[in-house]
C-alpha cells in the first residue's frame, strides 16, 4: 500500500505554469555518433541510480522513463515521467539525486557531459536542445509542486490526464504506459485513491475506461474545469 506523501493544503486548484518553449528537434541518426551513444533498456531496468556519478545527460528516443527518489521511510516519490524527446538526468552537482528506470522497453541517447561542454559554440542546435530540456524540466517541476500541495485527488488525476493527453495523444484517447502504482507515487496518493478517482470521473461521464490503461477523455471541458 502506498501512503499519501502530502496532505492536501487546499482543494482549490492552481493554474499551471507555462512558458513559450520551442519544441525539441526530432532525433536524427546522422547526428548521433559525434556526441552521443544510443542504448536500449528493458521494462523496469535501471538507467542510473540515486547517488551514481552524473557523467551523462539523457534524451528519450522512444518509450517512457520515470525518475524517482526513495524516501527515508521507504516510500517512493516519482518526480517525473519523461516521454519521447524529453531530456533528463541534468544535474548541478556530480551525482544523480534521483534514479531513472524504464517504464517499458525504451531507447535513450546518452550525451557525455564533458562532450556537451566542448560542443558549446560548435553545435548550436544541441545547445538549444539542452537549454530547452532544462526549461521544460523546470516548468514541470514547478507544476508538480503545485499539484502535490494544493489539489484534491480528483483534481490531481484530471491534471495528470490532461498533461498526458497533451504530450502523447492526437485526440481524446490515450494509452497510459505507466501503472496505477506509478501514478499514485507520482501524485502523492494511495493506489486505492487513484482507482476511486478514476471510477468517480468515469461515473460522472468525464472519462471512459475501456481498460485500466486506455482512457478516453469524454468531457475535456469538465477536466479543464477541474484543472483551473
From TrEMBL:
Keyword DNA-binding on entry: yes
Matching InterPro entries: cNMP-bd_dom, cNMP-bd_dom_sf, Env_Response_Regulators, HTH_CRP, RmlC-like_jellyroll, WH-like_DNA-bd_sf, WH_DNA-bd_sf
Entry GO MF terms: DNA binding; DNA-binding transcription factor activity
Segments forming domain HTH crp-type: 151-221
Record carries keyword Transcription regulation: yes
GO cellular component: cytosol
SMART domains from the UniProt entry: cNMP, HTH_CRP
Domain of life, source organism: Bacteria
Membrane-crossing residue ranges in chain numbering: none
Annotated SUPFAM superfamilies: cAMP-binding domain-like, Winged helix' DNA-binding domain
Keywords per UniProt: DNA-binding, Nitrogen fixation, Transcription, Transcription regulation
Protein name per UniProt: Helix-turn-helix domain-containing protein
Amino acid at each position: 500500500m502506498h501512503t499519501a506523501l502530502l496532505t492536501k493544503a487546499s482543494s482549490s486548484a492552481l493554474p499551471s505554469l507555462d512558458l513559450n518553449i520551442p519544441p525539441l528537434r526530432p532525433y536524427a541518426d546522422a547526428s548521433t555518433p559525434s556526441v552521443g551513444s544510443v542504448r536500449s533498456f528493458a521494462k523496469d531496468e535501471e538507467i542510473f541510480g540515486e547517488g551514481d556519478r552524473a557523467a551523462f545527460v539523457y534524451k528519450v528516443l522512444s518509450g517512457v522513463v520515470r525518475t524517482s527518489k526513495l524516501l527515508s521511510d521507504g516510500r517512493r516519490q516519482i518526480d517525473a515521467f519523461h516521454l519521447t524527446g524529453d531530456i533528463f538526468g541534468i544535474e548541478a552537482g556530480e551525482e544523480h539525486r534521483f534514479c531513472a528506470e524504464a517504464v517499458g522497453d525504451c531507447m535513450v541517447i546518452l550525451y557525455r557531459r564533458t562532450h556537451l561542454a566542448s560542443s558549446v559554440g560548435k553545435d548550436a542546435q544541441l545547445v538549444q536542445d539542452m537549454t530547452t530540456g532544462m526549461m521544460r524540466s523546470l516548468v514541470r517541476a514547478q507544476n508538480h509542486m503545485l499539484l502535490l500541495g494544493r489539489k484534491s485527488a480528483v483534481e490531481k488525476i484530471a491534471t495528470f490526464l490532461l498533461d498526458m493527453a497533451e504530450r502523447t495523444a492526437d485526440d481524446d484517447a490515450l494509452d497510459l504506459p505507466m501503472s496505477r502504482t506509478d501514478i499514485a507515487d507520482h501524485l502523492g496518493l494511495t493506489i486505492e485513491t487513484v482507482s476511486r478517482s478514476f471510477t468517480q470521473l468515469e461515473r460522472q461521464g468525464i472519462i471512459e475506461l475501456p481498460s485500466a490503461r486506455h482512457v478516453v477523455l469524454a468531457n475535456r471541458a469538465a477536466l479543464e474545469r477541474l484543472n483551473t
